[in-house]
Amino acid sequence: MAEADPPIFTGMEQVPERKASDSAALSSILDEADSPFVVRGLVSEWPLVKAGLQSARTARRYLLDRARSAPFTVTIGEPGRGGRLFYDDDFGMNFRTARGKLADIFRGFDDNEARTEAPAIYLSSVDMKLFFDGLVEENVSPVVDRRPLESIWIGTDTCVAAHNDFPRNLACCAVGRRRFTIFPPEQFANLYIGPLENTPAGRAVSMVDFHAPDFDAFPRFAEALKHAQVVELEPGDAVYIPSMWWHHVEGLDPFNVLVNYWWRDTPGFLGQPHDALNHAILALRDLPRSERAFWRELFDHYVFENPPEVAEHIPQKARGILAPLTAETAGRIKAYLLRALSK
Predict the structure, then answer these.
(1) 312 and 318 in contact (C-beta within 8 Å)?
(2) I want to staple 122 with a disulfide (CB 3.0 to 4.6 A). Which of 18, 19, 155, 182 is the partner?
(3) Following DSSP, what letter does each residue of 82-114 receive, concatenated?
(4) DSSP 3-state of 301
(5) Does residue 57 contact residue 263 with C-beta atoms inside 8 Å?
(6) Residue 250: its H or E element
(7) Which alpha helices (DSSP H) does 153-304 contain, by range?
C-alpha cells in the first residue's frame, strides 16, 4: 500500500480470496457464502477493463462512445477534503450535485487531472441499461442469473464513509484501484453511525474518518477494527459483500470506475426493513418503557420468532397475513399502511 495510507490499515486482516473460473462456479460459491470474499481477475476480460489499462482517457472515451444523450447527475466535492464525500461542519453536505452531458462532466476530469487541489467528481449508482447503449452487453455480468440491478460508479480518488446495503452486492473494479474495508453487521454500534434521515447518499454512514480516526471521540471504533477486513482491488478484481455488511470504499487512483450488482434472494414484493425501522421509531421508541417492553414481546412473537403457535389455532383459510406472505397479502399490508400513514 502507499506510504500515505493511515496506520489503521497496517496489519488488518485481508478479505479471503476464492477462485471462480466462470459464472457457474461463482454462483455455486455465492449460494453458500455468508461472509465477504474476493475473486481476482473475475472480469479482467471486460473491454472496459482493457480500455482502462491503456489509460484513464481511453476508458473515458470508451464510456463516452456508449453514453446516451440523457443528462447525468454528478456530485462535486469541495477541494482539500481528500475526496471524502461527507457532512460539512453544519451537517449539510460538503458537496453539491449538478446535471450535465457526460462529455462535459468528463471534460472536468480532464481539466482537473493535474491539479493538486482539485474537487472530487463522482457519478454514483448510474443505471447502466438506462444511460448507456451496449455497455451491459459488452461487459457481461458474472451474476446475470440472479437478475441484479447493474450500476456503474465513476469518480476521482473519492472516499465514501462506511455504510451498508440491504441487497447482496458484487462489486467489480473496472478502472483504477479500490480499497474496501468491511465490517460484520453487528459492529454498527462500534462504527458510530450518523443520522438516519439526513445522509450523504441515502444510507446512514459511520461518523469516523478512517484516515484520521479520533479514538477519544469514538473509542469503540478500536473494537470495530478488530473485526475488520480490508482488500485492495486491481482492475478486473471483484469483491462480494453480503447483505448488511458495512463497507468503507476508497478510489485510490485519479480516475476510478466500479461496476456493482445488487440483488436480493427474497421476493420483490416484500418490504424494505429500513422502512420498518423508521416506522418503529415513529410509533414505538418514545412510548413509556413498560409499553415498549410489551411491544418488544409482540414483535418477537409475530416477527422475530414467529413460532407455529402464532397461527396454528386459526383455520388456514383465515390466517391472512399470519400465513407466509404472497404478492397478494403483501399488497394488502402496503395498502393498509398507505391508508394509515396518510391520516
Answers:
(1) no
(2) 155
(3) TTEE-B-TTSSBSEEEEEE-HHHHHHHHHHHTT
(4) helix
(5) no
(6) strand 246-251
(7) 221-226, 273-283, 289-299
Q: 229 Cβ partners below 8 Å, 6+ apart?
A: 12, 13, 14, 15, 16, 36, 181, 182, 183
- Report DSSP state, residue 67: B
- Position 117 confidence tier, pLDDT thresholds 50, 70, 90: confident
Going by their DSSP bridges, the two strands 246-251 and 229-233 should be labelled as: unpaired
Strand partners, 114: none
**Residue 138 CB neighbour total at 10 angstroms:** 13
Q: What does 8-53 look like in DSSP terms, one character per residue?
A: GGTTPEEPPB---SSHHHHHHHHHH--S-EEETTTTTT-HHHHHHH
Q: Which residue type sits at 83?
A: G
CB-facing half-sphere around the CA of 59: CA atoms within 13 A: 23
Long-range contacts, stretch 147-151, CB < 8 angstroms, 24+ apart: 147/263, 148/261, 148/262, 148/263, 149/261, 149/262, 149/263, 150/259, 150/261, 151/125, 151/126, 151/127, 151/259, 151/260, 151/261, 151/262
Query: What are the sequence ranges of the domains in the chain?
Result: 7-263, 273-341
User: Cell digits for 12?
Assistant: 488488518
> What is the CATH T-level fold of the domain 7-263, as seen in this structure?
Jelly Rolls (2.60.120)
The predicted-structure confidence for 62-88, as pLDDT tens digits, reads as follows 999 999 999 999 999 999 888 999 999
Q: Are 244 and 182 in contact (CB under 8 A)?
A: no
pTM of the model as a whole: 0.94
Task: Centre a 10 Å sphere on the Cβ of residue 251 and count the other Cβ atoms it contains.
Answer: 26
pLDDT, tens digit, 9 for 90 and up, residues 10-62? 889 999 999 998 899 999 999 999 999 999 999 999 999 999 999 999 999 99
Predicted pLDDT of residue 7: 77
No. of H helices and E strands in the chain? Answer: 10, 14
Based on the number of CB atoms within 10 Å of its own CB, is 236 exposed (0-12), middle (13-18) or buried (19 or more)?
buried
